[in-house]
């Protein structure tokens, strides 16, 4: 991955954009969750983001991969925080670039939610926030890859409108296959090759614990 000559530093929001309340499975009391764009100057949040992602994702990433995303597209990178403890409990890292000179493509590179907070729709909220920001910036489509065995992720993304475009064999370092999924946003995106049929039963893609927040949109350096 070559170093970019021009980094676009976009001032990100320091205040939570949205707050939600829900009961955690392990805690009967209501918990406030806040969402905000990542502040690239907050080193503690960036370290928390790295730790959270390293637990969930199947690919190891260096600090340079994080900086590639965070320095150029901080407006597309969000964190979810336990408002009571200020702990970072979820994150999404994305980018937006021209694709083949014909359209603007958003890319969800990393998505993770802390185990104790899963099953509450946090990942879905993070995805929506990032996509909404991409739309504001003129995205024609959004792309991601996820492991073929990650049935929960496939089900969630297809319910949000994503379509499987292809299967990538032995895509990850663990030799697992991946599905590439694309969310068309404009006519520029739909003028393309045909998509795969949606899975009638997501369990056919592989067995995985049925948790809607076990989402891993894995990043491959080949996408740069």
UniProtKB/TrEMBL annotation:
Record domain N-acetyltransferase: where: 33-186
CDD domains reported in the protein's UniProt record: NAT_SF
Superkingdom in the source lineage: Eukaryota
GO cellular component: NatC complex
GO MF term (any one): protein-N-terminal amino-acid acetyltransferase activity
Keywords (A to Z) from UniProt: Acyltransferase, Transferase
The family this protein is said to belong to: Belongs to the acetyltransferase family. MAK3 subfamily.
PANTHER family in the cross-refs: N-ALPHA-ACETYLTRANSFERASE 30
Protein name, UniProt field: N-acetyltransferase domain-containing protein
Naturally occurring in which organism (per UniProt): Wickerhamomyces pijperi
């Amino acid at each position: 991955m070559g170093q970019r000559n021009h980094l676009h530093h976009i001032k990100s929001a320091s205040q939570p954009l949205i707050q939600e309340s829900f009961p955690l499975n392990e805690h009967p009391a209501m918990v406030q969750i806040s969402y905000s764009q990542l502040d690239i100057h907050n080193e503690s949040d960036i370290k928390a983001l790295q730790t959270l992602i390293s637990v969930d994702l199947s690919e190891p990433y260096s600090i340079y991969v994080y900086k590639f995303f965070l320095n150029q597209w901080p407006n597309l990178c969000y964190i979810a925080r336990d408002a009571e403890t200020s702990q970072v409990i979820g994150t999404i890292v994305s980018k937006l670039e021209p694709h083949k000179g014909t359209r603007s493509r958003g890319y969800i590179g990393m998505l993770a939610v802390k185990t104790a907070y899963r099953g509450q729709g946090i990942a879905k909220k993070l995805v929506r926030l990032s996509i909404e920001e991409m739309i504001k910036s003129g995205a024609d489509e959004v792309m991601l890859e996820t492991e073929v065995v990650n049935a929960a992720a496939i089900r969630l993304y297809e319910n949000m409108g994503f379509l499987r475009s292809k299967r990538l064999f032995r895509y990850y370092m663990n030799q697992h296959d991946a599905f590439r999924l694309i969310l068309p946003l404009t006519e520029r995106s739909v003028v393309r090759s045909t998509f795969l049929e949606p899975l009638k039963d997501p369990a056919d893609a592989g067995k995985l614990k049925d948790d809607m927040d076990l989402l891993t949109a894995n990043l491959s350096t080949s996408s740069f």
